[in-house]
Every structure is written in C-alpha cells, then in structure tokens.
Amino acid sequence: MNSRRKFLKNSAFAGIVVISSPNLAFTNTKTSIFSESDLIGKGNPKLYGTGYKLQKKAHQAFLEMNYAARKSGMNIRVVSSYRSFNHQNLIWTRKYKRYRSRNLSSKHAVLYNIRYTAIPGSSRHHWGTEIDVVDGSIKTSRYPLSTKNFHGYGIYKSFREWMDTNAHKYGYYRVYTNDHSRKGFKYEPWHYSFAELAKPMLEDYSQRDIQAILKKQPLLGKNHFTDSFLNTYTKDNILGINRSLLF
C-alpha cells in the first residue's frame, strides 16, 4: 500500500479536489485508461450475465459468490446492475417529476433525488461493477429495496448478515455504508461494488472535470447544478462511500 492510499484511508474527502480550483479535476496528469463515454454510461461495454449485466471479472466473482450463498441456502438475485446513461436518466426524470407533482420546488426535487438517485453521468451503475441484490430464495411482492427489509425482523436480515461476512471474500463491498459520519447518498444495504474494477474507474472519473461533464447533460433540474452544488455533490455523494472502495 503506497503512502497516497494510506492518506486516502484517513480522509473522507481523499484530498483529491483542488479547493481553489473552479472545477473538480485532479492536479495530476495520470493517463486515462477509460473513455469518458464508458465512465458516464454512454459507451458500449462488453457485459456478461443472465438477468443482469456486469464486466467479465465482476461477473465471474459474482458467480462464485452466489455459489457460496446457495450452499448456505440463499440465492443472490440481482435487482439492478449496469445502467446506461439513458436508463439512469429515466429514473432521474421519473423521480424528479414525482417530487415536482408534490409541489416541491425544482431545487428541492433535485435535493430529494440525490438522497438515493445519482445524477445521470455520475452513477456507479454506469460501470458494470455494481449490483443491487436481495435473497432470491424469498418470494415477496413487496418493494425489495427497502432498508427495513434488511434489519430487525426484515425478510433479508439473514441475507444481509451473510453478505456482511462473505461479500468481501469475492471482491464485493457495500458502497453506501450505515456510517453516520458519512454524507451523501443514504444507507443502501443492498448495493455492492466489485472493488478491483470500480476503484480505478472512480479514480479515472474523479480526475475529470465533473462539473463540466454534468452541466452539459440534458437533465431536468440542471439549472440548479451550480459550482457550489456540484462541489458538495462530488465530495459527499460520489466520494462519500465505503473507504474500501476509495483508490
């Protein structure tokens, strides 16, 4: 582990933004190994899986993890995996309109959206490294991705405990932890990321001018994407994650 990574582990903000700069690009000039299109969900990545879509290594690790889960009487069902920019924008637009229909201002519709929904172009689900998962051996007609299902007497409590103990053995880590010192997206006990691929993609993405990327997207509510808002969004939402997934 180099000194830079050690520093990252001790800093929630990872020291990666130049505070005096009007944008959020890195100051280093490391050569990018990913295209901007791939990082913002507008590329055409090669993906694998049946009923879900992941990059090859993430897919192989998922199969191994699910094999182990099955031996414990569970079946990992992927509710959501890769999402293109357009797919993420459909989710963003639907929720934004829902909040506006409840007489929220456009600014507050954006703020409500970013409790759980990433701005299109900034979602980790664009990378083919992310999965939202439940125990598929449990049949339910209820909305599965609810925190109460994973705690207390929830139907996925045992599943969450199994994932807490085992997911990291296969390279998967919960992204938005139940850490009250963490800001940004709300706790999501169902969302896991394949670190080996996601960490370099986050590093590459974070070196770019995130403000410029998001401001140029045709999104509802983008008039509220001020420099100050996007600075906070990047620091708290994009980087406010499990430290095991920082680079």
Assembly category = single chain
Supply the helix-strand structural class. Answer: alpha+beta
Shape call = globular
Report the sheet-strand fraction: 5-15%
Number of strands: 4
Mean pLDDT figure? 90
Intertermini distance: 11 Å
Order of strands across the main sheet: 1-2-4-3
Q: Level of helix content?
A: 25-40%
What radius of gyration results from the CA coordinates? Answer: 18 Å
Instruction: List unreliable stretches of 5+ residues.
Output: 1-28
Sheet with the most strands? 4 strands, antiparallel
Number of helices: 9
Order of helical and strand elements: HHHEHHEHEEHHH
Q: How would you explain this protein's 3D organization?
A:
The radius of gyration is 18 Å and the shape is globular. The protein contains 9 helices and 4 strands, in the order H-H-H-E-H-H-E-H-E-E-H-H-H. Helix 4 (85-101) crosses helix 5. The chain has a 4-stranded antiparallel sheet. Residues 1-28 have low confidence and may be disordered. The chain has 247 residues and is of the alpha+beta class. The chain is 37% helix and 7% strand. The termini are close together.
